[in-house]
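Hi, here's the filled form for the chain we discussed.

Project: internal
Contact: R.S.
Residues: 382
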Amino acid sequence: MIVDYIIIGQGLCGTFLSWYLNQYNKTCIIIDEDKPFTASKVSSGIINPITGRRFVKTWMIDELLPFANKAYTEISELINKSISCYPELIEGYLPTVEMTKYKHNKPIQNINCIEQKNVIHFFSNKESQNIFYNRLQEDPQYLMPSHPFHLGELVEVNYGYGEINPCYLVNTRSILNNYRKKLIDENQLLNEQFNMDALQIHSNSITYKDITAEKIIFCDGASGANNPFFKNLPYALNKGQFLLIKTEGLPDNYIFKKSTLTIVPWEKNIYWVGTSYEWNFDNTDPTKSFREKTIAQLKEFLNVPFEVIDHQAAIRSATLERRPFVGLHPSISTIGILNGMGTKGCSLAPYFAHQLAKHVCFRKEIMPEANVNRFKNVLDRK
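And the returned structure, exactly as it came back:
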């Protein structure tokens, strides 16, 4: 088999890179082992323009926000046009192994992979409240004062709340599951674990088993930290955990946030609750300590009953400088990378997949802050 590009990994990075390359009439094959729990699949899906305790704008958000909205809207249209999907994989957001057992073929129409769901940020103390309103005076672009919601019966409102607007919620599970089906239907996916030993590098091409391609691009998430071509990059892997809870009391048109607790509507009466940022961890398993701590926070915050129905964890591919790795290896032009999106993957992945696609197809420049060539000296070390 001869293709233009081999892509390793079908998370958000691999999915969007494949999509953009196809738009430029390039042929691709994605190699990806279907795992139920990856960072992309269990992500909350939030695109939030504001970050941190100081309520500052996230990096490049003025450019990323409209780009992401457009990209997810367009991929929703692609799904609606071309895919007959398994309804449980669309409507049932629960990321459990049981979901893979369903084989119904009833098509779902008018799937929307992105919705505006603003964040209601509850202040945990007077200082947090003051910081928010000071930032509101300095730069009100994404901040709004509190609305006269009747939330007191649902949650504990001790110091008030403000709104971050606009925020978006991306249905990553819908995108990945349906795009995977499209790839399978078009013979563009190998459902297997990539074997580095089977890769051969040539001067102007690469071969993997019986596949020959112009380039191979690694979109392999946390596994990239062990990739022999890119292992010297300053990765900062961290572990995130979340609960899924069932409750009939909360509205589903907003995302609730208080301190480290974030409550995200996933489907009717089901909410994603997380997340942790664990820099030191021995394995990828969910922990009892996270579960107990998060349940305690929920009981303190919510005035409605809830039931925990799932608890999962995944490893994020973050970087020390909080900037992604995008581009071709500075010494091996047939090998590329699109990785290191961290907690901002939903906003960063489409944008930088587009940049990389234009770079390899038309030699367009990659943003210097993201271009992996900035680590040339590090990558050239043996």
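Let me know if anything looks off before we file it.
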